[in-house]
Amino acid sequence: MRLQLFENVQVRLDGSGNGQVKLSPYGARNGGLSWGVDAVAVSVETQVLEALCSVYVSYGVIQADPTTLVGTTVTGSTGDTCGVGQDIRPGDWILVKWFGGDAGKIATARITGTVYPPGSGGP
């Protein structure tokens, strides 16, 4: 059994127009939900300043470095989508970081893909 993954996560950008969100599947490491992550779409509610946005996928620990970077866009405010194509389990992380957007505005990351319930034979 597979279900559609459609998770929205939001953050209010700080005074410098920076912000981040992190998300992990729910449940215990061995027996919780797993996600087959297809893409992360990003945007900010206003686009006076265009944010740079980076998406990271890390396993076991939240990391934002070149080894976990899956994509960067210079249109993190007006909107763009970063293809991910990776499977994650509880304790693995998607981290999305915006830089230089409109201070105090809401940034949104929309994660899409497939949810694999425990025992479904997913990733």
What's the gist of this structure?
The protein is mainly beta and 123 residues long.
Q: What would you say the CATH architecture is?
A: Sandwich
**Total discrete domains:** 1
Helix and strand pattern: EEEEEEEE
Q: Alpha-carbon distance between the termini?
A: 12 Å
Within the largest sheet, what's the order of strands?
1-8-3-6
CATH class call: Mainly Beta
Let me know the average pLDDT.
92
* Overall number of strands: 8
CATH domain fold name: Jelly Rolls
| Spans of at least 5 consecutive residues with low confidence | none
Structural category is mainly beta
Q: What characterizes the major β-sheet?
A: 4 strands, antiparallel
- Give the fraction of residues assigned to helices: under 10%
The value of Rg in angstroms is: 14 Å
Shape: elongated
Strand content: over 45%
Count of helical stretches:
0
Protein described:
The protein is mainly beta and 123 residues long. It has one domain: Jelly Rolls (Sandwich), CATH 2.60.120. Helix content is 0%, strand content 54%. The protein has strands at residues 3-12, 19-23, 34-44, 52-59, 69-73, 80-88, 92-99, 106-116. The strands form two sheets. A four-stranded antiparallel beta sheet has the order 1-8-3-6, with no helix packed on it. A four-stranded antiparallel beta sheet has the order 2-7-4-5, with no helix packed on it. The radius of gyration is 14 Å and the shape is elongated. The relative contact order is 0.39. The model has no long low-confidence stretch (mean pLDDT 92).
Keywords:
four-stranded antiparallel beta sheet; 0% helix; mainly beta; Jelly Rolls
